[in-house]
Structure prediction request, 584 residues.
Amino acid sequence: MANLPKTTSKGSAKTYDGLGIPLILPAWIIIGFFLVIPVAMMLVYSFLTKEFRGGVIWEFSIGAYDQFFFYRGLFGDSPPTIEWTYIGIFWRSIWQAGLATFFCLLIGFPTAWFIATRTGPNKTIWLFLITIPYWVNLLIRTISMKFLIRDNGPLNEFFLSLGLISEPLHIINTNFAVQLGLFYSYLPFMVLPIYAAVERYNFALSEAAADLYASQTVTLTQVILPTVKPGIIAGCILVFVPSLGAFLAPDLLGGAKNFMIGSLIEEQFKGAAGNWPFGAAASMILLSLVLIVLTFYARSQTKDQI
Amino acid sequence: MATKSLDLRHFTGFQPLTLLCLFLLYAPLIIVMIYSFNDSNSITRWNTISLRWYYDLFYGVDAPKFKTAAINSVSIAIMAAISATIIATMAATAMMRAGRFRGKSVSFALINLPLMVPEIVTAVATLIFFSAIGFTTGYLTILIAHIVFCIPFAYLPIAARMEGIEEVYEQAAQDLYATRFQAFRLILLPLMAPGIMSGFLLAFIISLDDFIITNFVKGAGVETLPTVIFGAVKQGIKPNIMAISTLLLVVSVGFVALSYFVGRIGEKANPTTTKKGE
Prediction:
């Protein structure tokens, strides 16, 4: 890290010494005021009472969390049993995000490896090709996928014309469609960090392994994968975290039956059926899940450095 | 040595998988592009090639709606990107050039916070915040929310660039009695220009692309291109949606290409950058 402060040596006085705080202040104010405080207020809102027209009544209540985890019958007076609806939606989201991460890794690792081992201008072209979709509007990419896999869309027409199927495959509005959408949305996120790790990989290690009669498979699993592991973990985080809270893919490709966390939250803030405290509570639970994942990630990174 | 090390880099099947990966990424986009030139009322039947739906975008029934949304999108993106770039440049100078100060390690986490909080959570939190302080959601709230999440995207290329510029140039300027502000304005800023430019362009694209956060804080009546497209798609994909998608796609790719080449030209033209930061 080049920006570690050098503490004692006299010649390292920085040009703008003492201006650190005034220079960083605008970033603090904007992010602090419009992100940190809002998240804190969201936490407060999750403990308030809902108002029926959307919004809240300023009365403390754990109703939102209670509704999330427990079912107390239609009139709220039965003994509480565990409410599986929302836990189920969270579980489905975790499962879908995990699966998307797995498939992205499966195709992303070979791609990253292949690009990183190219030489000269070829490498730049490959890299550029893989980066472009990353910058294309996510909404437009999701719409493209929706267009492609419709019942009478190009994909079905193609299969029908080949005679592979006799009637259109029903893909849209299934869990599979959501999976496809997540995979498609976040695939570039997997490739780029693994690419960066493979770039730094020292091929002398592979040579040493080969000299000691390791097969290609052994070299891959025993030498290469452990060495580029930080890149792989970073890629997995970059796919898993946004997949978990994804809204567009489940909403546009999954339909009403294949709800994920994102749609559940969105629904609480739209229209008359909205329940702000419940939406805030669901967001807090999602944020906690993400923070747990990121903490594990930070731990694994510091361990790797030692 | 050469042939041997090439063998070590080669794994059977990785090349086809890479091609498959690119195919998967591009096929849906290319198909939508092709169908946007379809002269037919139905999105399924292929008729002949025409620019009919592009004409429809600019002169059809929905044209005023798209036009307003486009103006909102672009004006918000420009203002958000400029603000985020200024804030990020100042922050990068603080982090890399100002030695130690209180809260420096927290600052790094804070700048990257918008990347770590899931988008939907940021959206909810921002909506709740504006509602709680009684601020009417609309154009201004979209702009503020966009500035927040554009900051880390502008910061990354700017900080990377600054890390590569050695401090000796500013020190030389100061030895020649330049004030610190002069050193910044006349030395650091010109050297930083490519990094600042790519930071600005990335922030611009990120702002232009955003749907989820905008959808929460836009309030009634104010629409950006993504929200207006989303609203239309909810009622079914029509051919004009494919035309506008294609246009947006071309704009995004153009801007990224521009950002990329600006960065590269800067790197080549500028002998002071060192590679050690990479």
In short: The mean pLDDT of chain A is 85. The radius of gyration of chain A is 25 Å.
